[in-house]
Design a protein that fits this description.
2 copies of one chain form a homodimer. The first copy, chain A, has a two-stranded antiparallel sheet. Chain A is elongated, with a radius of gyration of 24 Å. The first copy, chain A, contains 12 helices and 2 strands. By secondary structure, chain A is mostly helical. Helix content of chain A is 63%, strand content 3%. In chain A, a hairpin with a 3-residue loop joins strand 1 and strand 2. Chain A has 2 domains: 64 residues, Orthogonal Bundle (Arc Repressor Mutant, subunit A), CATH 1.10.10.10; 144 residues, Four Helix Bundle (Hemerythrin (Met), subunit A) (Up-down Bundle), CATH 1.20.120. The interface between A and B is large, with 67 and 67 residues. Chains A, B: It holds the Pfam family GntR. Chains A, B: This is GntR family transcriptional regulator. Chains A, B: It comes from Agaribacillus aureus. Chains A, B: Keywords: DNA-binding, Transcription, Transcription regulation.
Chain lengths: 233, 233
């Protein structure tokens, strides 16, 4: 066990499964395989990569987890369109993430919501404006909005609707995955001695901007709406 | 094999490894384990989950791939801060992604670059402005900018620097991962019969805005700079 350590700094050991996984992904990419194309059999892959079937199975299991391959009845393993965000989804646990990552993610929210104005304007419909109005009206009538939990509920449903209105599924899913982190950060904010004050632009103001304004007005007003959070940068 | 199919729509089969993976993640989260905390041994986990060691090993391999656990000498397996984006990184192959996902990702770029103005202004330094100027000057002097490849090179190095200036590592890494997709989309644009024209705002104009303007000016000018891409929404 007592090996001399002459390395300047420790490097992460790459396991056999890591190597086989990398080689497999490289293989798929280099052979220009498309979704639906069949993969070689486990035994063939094991021979080709010079490793045991167990190791191949482990690497395939990882790719299956990422949605890059799936097993089809009668056809065997085929390549599939990977799920871009499933890997992120699995690790998003506020308990486990560092403060630094949480802060990064919270900032990402501020960036996305100010930046997505053009997408919203390009794709908004009367129905979607109506949904926003419903949420804002319910919020205005709710006697419980002095409670953080109630305020958060309306905040989330209003802003989630905006993401949906971008018509960009990746963006929408990204946001719903990040929600636990947003919640956590807003709960932290609420325990601060100097609580962030509400912005000058309300949800109703944002709706009015969508109806009569431009993407540029909307960016300005959304930035103003998010001021309490921006002030903490 | 001939089972009656009374399900209204097919559901994806959940493999044993998927279940064990989910149970393990749930276990880590419910027990409020933090980075650095040791995990139970493989044999203990197998007993606790009622599955074979092989299945536990497969699930652990997946978590290791996501950076959620690592093996330490003498300490055994410990929980580690997961790498938020490693799962995305692995599946980002323009060859394999659908047109729809590629379009989503390209739009995400437009959203991020217009939205990140406040982060850039909060954290810019004289050195970072100097780096942007160096890139823009080299671009202006390069005789090869009529070639797409050369133009793309400067475009990427200028915009990557802006992401770096946000001081948000998750954002910066996200961008560098998405680069292959950006490149692909810009190559597609360049083959179109009606090529998008250049925006009215140059890299030099953007630098001037960083020096003497406000985040709001910058958002406006960046939006203008990206107009050729926005026109394709």
């Amino acid at each position: 066990m007592q090996k001399p350590n002459i390395r300047p700094k420790p490097v992460k050991a790459i396991s056999l499964a890591d190597q086989v996984e990398n080689n497999l992904i490289e293989y798929l990419n280099n052979n220009n395989l498309k979704a639906g194309d069949p993969l070689p059999k486990e035994t063939e892959l094991a021979e080709y990569l010079g490793v045991s079937r167990n190791v191949v199975r482990e690497a395939l299991s990882r790719l299956r987890m990422l949605g890059m391959i799936e097993s089809k009845k009668r056809k065997g393993m085929v390549l599939s369109e990977p799920d871009l965000l499933s890997g992120v989804e699995r690790v998003l646990y506020p308990n486990i993430l560092s403060e630094e990552s949480m802060k990064d993610i919270f900032e990402l929210r501020l960036v996305l919501e100010v930046g997505m104005a053009d997408l919203i304007f390009a794709r908004l419909t009367e129905e979607s404006i109506k949904s926003l109005e419903d949420i804002a009206n319910r919020e205005a009538r709710d006697p419980g909005t002095n409670k953080l939990k109630t305020r958060l509920k309306y905040e989330i449903s209003f802003h989630s609707k905006l993401y949906e209105m971008t018509g960009n599924n990746t963006l929408k899913r990204f946001q719903s995955m990040l929600l636990p982190v947003f919640n956590y950060m807003m709960e932290v904010e609420s325990t601060l001695e100097h609580k962030p004050e509400s912005g000058k632009i309300s949800h109703f103001d944002l709706i009015e901007t969508l109806k009569t304004g431009t993407p540029s007005n909307f960016r300005k007003n959304m930035r103003e709406h998010l001021t309490p959070h921006y002030d903490r940068l």
